[in-house]
Write the structure tokens for this entry.
Amino acid sequence: MSRIEKRFARLKADKRAGLVAYVTAGDPKPTLGYDILKGLPGAGADLIELGMPFTDPMADGPSVQLAGQRALKAGITVSATFDMVRRFRTEVDDDTPILLMGYYNLVYQRGIEKFCKDAAAAGVDGFILVDLPPEEADPLKKHAVANGLDTVLLTAPTTDDKRLPAVLKFSSGFVYFVSVLGITGTKSASEETVRGHVERIKRHTRLPVGVGFGIKTPEQAAAVARHADAAVVGSAIVDQVKVALDADGKPKANLVPGVLGFVKSLAEGVRSVRKP
Amino acid sequence: MPDMPNTYRRGPDERGHFGIFGGRYVAETLMPLILDLEKAYNEAKADPAFQGELSYLAKHYAGRPSPLYHAARLTRHLGGAKVYFKREELNHTGSHKINNVLGQVLLAKRMGKTRVIAETGAGQHGVATATACALFDIPCVVFMGATDVERQAPNVARMNMLGAEVRPVKAGAATLKDAMNEALRDWVATCETTFYCIGTVAGPHPYPAMVRDFQCVIGEETRAQMMEAEGRIPDTLVACIGGGSNAMGLFHPFLDDPGVRIVGVEAAGHGLSTGQHAASLTGGRPGVLHGNLTYLLQDEEGQIKEAHSISAGLDYPGIGPEHSWLKEQGRVEYVSATDDEAVEAFQLLCKLEGIIPALESAHALAHVLKLAPTLPGENLLVMNLSGRGDKDVPQIAARLGMKV
């Protein structure tokens, strides 16, 4: 059983949905980025998505774009991101799943096989690659499986019943439903929309369903938790980094507690919902 | 040794791949729409009514065929190959871009889309898209890097007059790459009603093949016109390459004529050794950006580098995937020309032939100035004069210290 499978089994036993917290690796700088990462399990994050900054994040809204620019400017690299995960596994815990989220070119340039080996060795559990649809996923899937890594594919409102099986075939760990048409951190879906799509996806798979895009408040996280197996929050968390920077971009003293306090409020929202 | 194909014109495969290049690297939200587009395009391509309407518009609206012109004074000046220009700059809207846009906007209508978006660098594709959208009465939004909005001001005014909304993009270096990011972000949010009209032979499948097909009229006409003028096909073809649509349009119909030497000219900016250039094939390596796997300017880890070129239309760190494949096959030679060489060529053409070329096309000309003198007098060389330079007049005037 992978860490991700174990975590979802545990959530099911606890009769609740999970909180997937997204942070951009190395935002606003590598040291503080690590302090945030380290504090996430304590703040109630059940799974962690660690964003790999990319110069051209085509599926991301302004919040995640800016977070990536801050981290790249501060010198974050893919290798440093792996180191961060390695340190997390020794210093924090060995249970909280960490997924790398980002764009395929960073994987492709390192070499798909080497990327998977390095990721697995560092303690990464899987990938969410925004620009890698099932049509192009064959090469990655092979090496991910060989290294015990999960590949979480995205489904969207435009992914109809006919196409869904193709996406699910490549997905493991859980499946990520993008609840709105659009980029990260902009629009929010209604609870009805989320319910309808989650029910539809569940007719096709026994994988847990995580729902993301546009979840900004503990109340919205709770609404998603009523229907999905996990709520994914990203832009609203990285916005908490942004508000803790002064006019010159220097971090204020309360940055890490501020971010983690917000994650805690989201976790409370998700945990307020009891599942049957 | 890789197997040499017996044709260079069969690609891409059913998954949109040219060898390892091309493909469909897009967010899942867009995948179903891209599959729909492919289906709609294949149906339209086989529909005589669609083809009939497109050729009617090409002839009566855009002014095709564009002339194949023997540049006699330039030929004498260079003292080598017999130089012809394929005069794409004489098309309506002033470049080859209209060939593709008419096809795509007709397809948008056919698919029932109610809004068109486009990215633009120099503004030529933006102007062409705004033009076709005015003609077909479809709302049009053009994404353009803020740097380009400034250096291509005349084209911004034209787009506005044609009723399009120009959205300046401030991210990154605020040029073509950033405009394309923003267009893709818009499309993800609006894909059910919006048609994305990509301006070059790049992006996810089917765009590289579709745009190529719409541009192949350039090469097909050239073949017929050269047969008429000289009784044989050309020996040498030269075209500039940003994304590579004007080049692909000229080259593709000749790929299987082994006697035809084909040369693509990338933008070398301040010089290849300075790192400030836009020559993806010469200075880059394969990677994934904007929906396709192709040669890209990037760092060790895969972060995309900013391109540099004096020409906004060539200022892009990638290139169409079929060009990447043709480079690896060795069928097309890819060379480059610097900013300075392009400006010099620009001035020479004004004086010798009375033609003000686009800065993009001036890169192709800069290479012709080097290549033609090395070739014998019977060598028939065709350069694609892909655009006219009115849009570049303020920029060149400023560079040369002239008052506008």
Q: What stands out?
A: Chain A has one domain: 3-269. Residues 3-269 of chain A form a domain with the TIM Barrel fold (CATH 3.20.20.70).
